[in-house]
Amino acid sequence: MRAWTLAALALLPTPARADDAVRATEAERARLLDHRWPLPAPVEGARRKADETGDYDLQSVAIELDGGGPGELPTEARFEVSLIASRPLEGALVLLAAFFEPEAVRSPEGDLLEFRRDPGSGELLVGLARRVDAGEVVRFTIEAPFSPSCADASACVTGAALRHVVEYGWYPMSGEFPLGDRFTVDLTISAPGGEAPSGIGLRVSERAEGDRRVVRFATEQRTTLVALAQGPYVAHRVDDGPAPIELLVPSTAAGNGAPMGALAADAMRAFETMFGPYPFGRLAVTPIDDAAGVGIGPQANIFLREREWATSPEEARYDIVRRVASHEIGHQWFANLVAIADTRDLWLSEGFAEFAATRYSERLTGTDAHFRTNYWAYLQRVPAVGDAPLWSTDAFDGPYRFEIAYQKGSAVLEQLRRRLGGDVFDAVMAAYVEAFAGQIATTPELVDFWQSATGASLRPFFDQWVFGEGHPELRLSAAPARGASDAIALRIEGAGAFAGPLPLRLHLADGAVDTVSVALEDGPDYRLRAGPVQWIEVDPDLTMFRRVRPDPAGDVDLSGVVDGMDLLDVHFAQGREAPDPAWDDRVDVNRDGAVDAFDARAVREQFGAGW
Fold first, then answer.
1. What fold does the segment set 56-311 form as a domain?
2. Gyration radius of the chain's alpha carbons
3. Which of 139, 5, 158 is CA-nearest to residue 75?
4. Is 185 left (phi over 0), alpha (psi -120 to 50) or beta?
5. In whole angstroms, how far apart are CA 213 and each of 208, 247, 256, 369, 387?
6. What local confidence, expressed as pLDDT, does residue 42 receive?
7. What was the pLDDT predicted at 523?
């Protein structure tokens, strides 16, 4: 039972509103995570499992990069391509070659092959010397200047001390199903003296050739995203995690990156308990230029801005570093081990990686503040006209990609966890990762798998929050039930087509708490049997997306009357603005996105407006 009194109101301080620094920090984190590579649009009718798409299955691409001096990316490339025909082929193969212009295409014997590249589409047609039978291996080599487009700094930075390229199409890819056809990568980079390259996969070998350093990397699992970085790095190895951690420390940085190594090792251990064994033989952590503006998570190597690398654990913004780094490490399971095929399933990569980051935050802090921040950010920032289903191209192409795919996507998984129970959820999540390891997952397959594994009817949940868009704005009014001292009448309007359980926490006069649940589809009127109810919490654990609007607006505690207790609630909540994890719609009486003195004034004006 709340022991506040109206007389105490004059003694309460008026907290300041959240300052600009807090909002700027949240916006910075959004920029850091919102990497947007040019994913292809979905292809209807595509078979979505690895190795089963298109006219051919791309098996491997060996890449040799050479040339370039300090402050430059390599200038020459040689691509050795190996593929298996899925059906009889003749004429020409179609590949995607967006950011290189072939000068020669050769057979394994060194003979020149005919080719043609369309600069507009980036398609490369490689002529076949003869008919190729289904199941036959085809190999050829492409020689080309290396010319990635660095118009987007998140995908490519050159001309700086730390350069990187992580952009689809600077290497040969399937022309028909760019993401549906994964392959292993063997990447060799020749770097100028005083610099070191960093690539995806394992570091296989390293040697000196004159004044240059030649380093070879190789992936263990198939991928579609080939990434590299180059700069004055010094490698430090950490053996404290589930796999060796290689820290590529800039030679200008102080120390050896020990805090980042400890963070990476701890996050890897945490994720192993949730998603299964770490899938690769190492994890490299590579700083890239601050101009990149994002964190990136290719296979076995996460890229973080140099600023994140240099942030001390004692600094206030280190929480952002931890959240971004753990998100990118989460990509080792989601996008690298369990892959996606196109823009419709972006949330299976970004939402799942962000969910991993929220679970890691919970492990460290013992609170669900990270989840709640994501939940309220989505609800507050995405207007009805800008919302889109998680499973849609609009979620990727629209202006609220980060709020929908990342924040709503992660919150949906947390809501499912709360409905199923933590132990059941974690067991099914680990089984899901194991079942789709090394393959491509789709949202419909996810739903089928989770329904089968749990034996629960989850289709309504997914229909509302993954395949559907929007959320209900619930208008609630409470009053003692007529003729019954142990019952309360609750009216819930605004659910529309939304259904499902809405948990309620009833705080009784004797200090006891009673938790009940009502079905929105049964509304609008509910009669709840309980002792005298002092106030009601609506869905306190955020198990569904909703906005709560008390009626009258000043009855923020849903006690059935607007009184001093509502005023105390507003004063204690002053200074909150979404996405504050402690945000509560009810205390924002005038609905302006902030809890402030205007809300307190609105409550005062409504005194006596209850039953």
1. Immunoglobulin-like (2.60.40)
2. 28
3. 158
4. beta
5. 5, 18, 21, 46, 49
6. 61
7. 86
In the chain, domain spans = 56-311, 342-465, 472-605
Residue in 575, 547, 596 with CA at minimum distance from that of residue 379: 547
Residue pair 271/355 in contact (Cβ under 8 Å)? The answer is no
Kindly indicate the confidence band of residue 2, based on its pLDDT and cuts at 50, 70 and 90. low
Distance CA 498, CA 508 (A): 29
Q: What is the pLDDT of residues 230-260, one digit of tens each?
A: 999 999 999 999 999 999 998 877 777 889 9
Do 223 and 200 form a contact (C-beta atoms < 8 A)? yes
- Average pLDDT for 417-438: 96
Residue ranges with strand state E in 130-232: 137-145, 156-157, 163-165, 173-174, 184-192, 196-199, 202-209, 212-218, 228-231
* Fold match flag (56-311 vs 472-605): yes
In the chain, helix, strand, coil percent, each to 5?
A: 30, 25, 45
Token pair for residue 37? 């590579």
Instruction: Show Cβ contacts of residue 82 under 8 Å, excluding neighbours closer than 6 positions.
Output: 58, 59, 60, 61, 137, 138, 139
587-607 pLDDT per residue, tens: 999 999 999 999 999 999 998
Widest pairwise Cα distance in the chain? 95
Q: Which strands form 245-250's sheet, in the order they lie side by side? A: 233-238, 245-250, 283-288, 301-305
Look up the CATH architecture of domain 472-605. Sandwich (2.60)
Closest among 542, 423, 562, 564 to 479, alpha carbons compared: 562
The structure tokens 């409550």 sit at 603
Tokens 């301080």, residue located: 13
Q: Which residue reads 């990156």 in tokens? A: 257
Domain 342-465: give its CATH superfamily.
Neutral Protease Domain 2 (1.10.390.10)
